[in-house]
Design brief:
The complex is a heterodimer of chains A (about 110) and B (about 120). Chain A is mainly beta and about 110 residues long. Chain A has no helices and 11 strands. In chain B, strands 2, 4, 5, 6, 9, 10 and 11 form a 7-stranded mixed beta sheet that branches. A 4-stranded antiparallel beta sheet of chain B has the order 1-3-8-7, with no helix packed on it. The N and C termini of chain B lie far apart (about 30 Å). Chain B has strands spanning about 5, 10-15, 20-25, 30-35, 45-50, 55, 65-70, 75-80, 85-95, 105, 110-115. Chain B is globular, with a radius of gyration of 14 Å. Classes of the chains: A mainly beta (about 110), B mainly beta (about 120). The interface between A and B is medium-sized, with 24 and 28 residues.
Chain lengths: ~110, ~120
Amino acid sequence: QKEVEQNSGPLSVPEGAIASLNCTYSDRGSQSFFWYRQYSGKSPELIMFIYSNGDKEDGRFTAQLNKASQYVSLLIRDSQPSDSATYLCAVRDNFNKFYFGSGTKLNVKP
Amino acid sequence: ETGVTQTPRHLVMGMTNKKSLKCEQHLGHNAMYWYKQSAKKPLELMFVYNFKEQTENNSVPSRFSPECPNSSHLFLHLHTLQPEDSALYLCASSQGGLATYNEQFFGPGTRLTVL
């Protein structure tokens, strides 16, 4: 069974700080990696994807991928209360199946 | 309409009812998915269709029956459900096949309550 592991949190950070969310995965053949944000009662919203080792930046968000360590992370700079949500890590395998972690709940305190 | 749409957004049904959930994607994708999300549980993959062919049935009870008439539409037919089937049902789509760039996008979901 291919697994995606996340710390369920909650992760609490003050407004303006950097929030760091982590994810590990079990399948070394995984090709694509995604971060979704999900507000309570809403559907997941894709915020970042990364396919190659290293960092990818998009605005306040940076995704980091280390395939050797089977580790992917999401950094949120200048965290805002509106960033408070559950963040889901997802991994796609070679058969176009997506595996999701259980999510990390982030609380950004004003 | 843009993205992935789902109807109805909310559904209340009795255990003896038959109902259907509808999903439509306007992204030109070829793969469509049904997920179940129960309270405080991770997403559970139910079904996957690639190019209209079902490629995954994740041990889903037969009271859930998917239908994919074309690459843009996906249905989930429901009958004789149980109260524990109450959940948020999410439809998603992606490029399909072995495309390298293959992000998955979700619809808004159908909140199902089984009485």
